[in-house]
Amino acid sequence: MKQRTIYFDVLNILSCMAVIALHHNGIVHNYSDTTAWKTALIVEVGCYWAVPIFMMLTGATLMNYREKYDTATFFRKRFARTLIPFLAWSTIVLVWKNCTGQMSKGLDSLQSFAEAVLNYEMEAVYWYFPLLFSIYLLMPLFSALAEPKYRKTLWYAVAVMFLLQSVIPPLANLTGFDWNSTLGLSFNRSFIYVFLGYLLSTCQLKAPQRYMIYLAGIASALFRYGAVFYLSTRDGAKNSVFFGYGYFPAIPLACAVFVWVKQVDWERVLERLRIPVSALAKISACSLGIYLIHKIVMYYELELLSGFGITKTRMIWRFACIPMTYLVALAIVWLGKKIPVVKRLFP
Fold first, then answer.
1. pTM for the full predicted model
2. Mean pLDDT score across all residues of the chain
């Protein structure tokens, strides 16, 4: 149990850093035949596992919630931890962006405010929270499959979702085939990670199986880079076919990262680095708060660094400033958690 906790924390921290790396390289979403875009695409592909790992951790930690508490307690804990901070920060960011001229709507009526929050108009990266809430709402159903006798059923669901939701749709898009998207399980494509997180966290893979997953992850990353590069160059604009977390290039990579981190002896690593397990857990607990505020941190960092000629396309911003953003956001969340009223904003 202790080992599981450690690798969950490691995955949480690494995923948070990878999300920040992705957003520091946001220029990848505006194609240009430049070295900056090509290197940004490397980061985009190499860190694309970040959000899928968050979803896998949700499955790994919550699929068996019935072993710890009842469903009413589950909902109370989950929504207290995520819904209140989401609504609070959505409001804060909405007001802040209107005041700083980044946005000019969402405050003129209650309806426009609600629409802006529900559709994460104030901050695009908040798209993750509505998905997370939908996972929570379905978790009582998912959790019934956490019993050992249903493992084959879960693997069946993963296989069906992978084939009919992750493989065929993007290939049909490329070939112009009119695929009927209602075929397959009627879950969001990203839900496959919830099942995979639980399954991979509760099984022991042999070395050959792990190596096959690693090779699949590397191959999928190389494929995605080559496909996005070729298609975007051909079109002269970003081609979005393989920018979906639910499509097949993303899934093996996320599984490879999850399995690799799981098999590392982190107790030994932390002992050598002289990092207490308790400190790792506290840093991990800041990840959701960091996710909520890191774009604000990035905004003011760019405002400050622009005076030195540093812009979004500069290499120093896209690589060297990643740890700076993480550490600044971590410090804010860490301190915020120590202030009685403010700590409610930082899950």
1. 0.95
2. 94
